[in-house]
Amino acid sequence: MTFFLSLRSPLRWLAACGASLAVASNAFAHASPTSRDPAPDAEVAAPSVVTIRFSEPLEPAFSKIALVDEAGKRAASLASVVDAQDRKTMHLELKPLAPGRYTVQWTAVADDGHRTKGGYAFNVK
Ligand SMILES: [Cu+2]
User: Fold this and answer.
1) How far is the CA of 88 from the centre of ligand 1 (A)?
2) pLDDT (tens digit, 9 = 90+) per residue, 30-66?
3) In the prediction, which pLDDT does 26 show?
4) 16 CB contacts (<8 Å, ≥6 apart)?
5) Are strands 115-124 and 43-44 parallel, antiparallel or unpaired?
6) Ligand 1 centroid to 120 CA: how many Å?
7) Domain hosting residue 8, numbered range
8) Are residues 21 and 75 in the same domain?
9) From the CA of 114, how far away is ligand 1's center (Å)?
10) Sorting pLDDT into bands at 50, 70 and 90, what band is 28?
């Protein structure tokens, strides 16, 4: 009943519409991973690169990936790179990894300046 009453009120309808649009565009502008390689909890032979694809183009100067081992020590790697041809993709080239569990830590800054962070682990056989 309340729902139909609110639909009949043009002002309320507009307000609800504007609010949902604002939420949608805000969520859209934040970069979140759409694919991760190695995948979370994967058990793989030592990878030479970690690649993460995001929902939004990234700011290369502020976006990065780091890899740490079980002791929290940074795994040897080159600096992470945002692909110049495809700024939704960022990768980290690695030196050979010993067997063990590793945690990927990423920071992504989208074009709107909003920063998102996350992490996940995978295992090297
Ligand atoms: Cu944003």
Assistant:
1) 14
2) 999 999 999 999 999 999 999 999 999 999 999 999 9
3) 52
4) 6
5) parallel
6) 22
7) 1-30
8) no
9) 4
10) low
Q: List the beta strands (DSSP E) in the chain.
A: 33-37, 43-44, 49-54, 64-68, 81-82, 89-93, 100-109, 115-124
Please state the pTM of the whole predicted model. 0.77
Maximum CA pair distance of the chain?
A: 65
CA 32–ligand 1 middle distance (angstroms): 10
Q: For residue 41, which amino acid is it? A: D
82 and 25 together in one domain: no
- The tokens for 117 are 């962070």
Compute the distance from residue 63 Cα to the ligand 1 centre, in Å. 14
CA of 33 to the centre of ligand 1 (A): 14
- Phi and psi at 16, nearest 5°, equal -65, -40
Task: Write the pLDDT tens digit of every residue in 70-104.
Answer: 999 999 889 999 999 999 999 999 999 999 999 99
Number of domains into which the chain is organized: 2
Residue 92 structure tokens: 């980290």
